[in-house]
Amino acid sequence: xxxxxxxxxxxTGKTTxxxxxxxxxxxxxxxxxxxxxxxxxxxxxxxxxxxxEAVIKTNPVIEQSKCIACRQCVEFCQYNALALLGKQLLVxxxxxxxxxxxIMVCPTAALTEGEREIGRIRADQxxxxxxxxxxxxxxxxxxxxxxxxxxxxxxxxxxxxxxxAQPGSSCPTIAAALDSDFCLLVTEPTPFGLNDLKMxxxxxxxxxxPAGIIINRSEEEYDYLxxxxxxxxxxxxxxxxxFDREIAFLYSKGIPFTENQPEWRAKFRQLYANIEGVVQNxxxxxx
Length: 287
Ligand code: SF4
Ligand code: SF4
What we know:
This protein has helices spanning 14-24, 40-44, 72-76, 101-105, 145-152, 171-177, 191-207, 224-233, 245-252, 257-260, 263-286; strands at residues 2-6, 28-32, 53-62, 82-85, 88-91, 111-123, 131-137, 160-164, 182-187, 211-218, 236-242. By secondary structure, it is α/β, with parallel strands linked by helices. It is elongated and about 70 Å long. The two termini are 19 Å apart. The protein binds iron/sulfur cluster (SF4) (2 copies).
């Protein structure tokens, strides 16, 4: 099963859930697809070697002497990655989406395909469970999706795969969630949390992926905010992690709280069993 852990906004506890779930289950693989600021490695205590895999992106390269300033490539590019300054064509590779269209429309073959490294994929060498991989987007790069796509090529066939996605509901989050069996939506019981949760729910509905909700920093008197919404959307409220000083302290030290509070491992295993139930129900409803 492939489970993607999502949150509508950063700082809600997505990595806490992803890492503690991965550590509580046997035979798991954790992929950190929050490639702009991956930090699951801290909680997993990953040991990286010097070896890593480059993520290469293609982008157009201009040969000015062949350019007749016809603007066809500029008009074709939907991402504003090309601009004509007088007769000089400027290429902004950071925002190019590598579609190759500008190269095809150029009448003088002034544009050719070049390559650029935009990130890296690293793997934990410790051989502990969970098997761990992380994607890293180079500073200044705009397009995280190629790094996430390449990271997901390392998904294990014979393990439960947990993907720690980028917060939000834009392209990198969608790229992480695509092809998952289940999306775990982590939120907090505040109006802001609810607002961002709604966007994440809209996204998983569009993708047609079964989902459930976890309340992090749960407080009994405020949880109704999320519980009522979950009920109205027909989504299971799968787990509540309390607003707890020790959990916050352990997080600040980079320690997964299941390590100091081992009773939580059984709760995360139960969470996994409940996810299996939701996925099975969704499959039954489709048939
Ligand atoms: S490859 Fe596509 S996205 Fe990149 S500059 Fe050309 S048209 Fe724009
Ligand atoms: S399409 Fe080719 S010739 Fe026309 S402006 Fe672009 S690079 Fe220059």
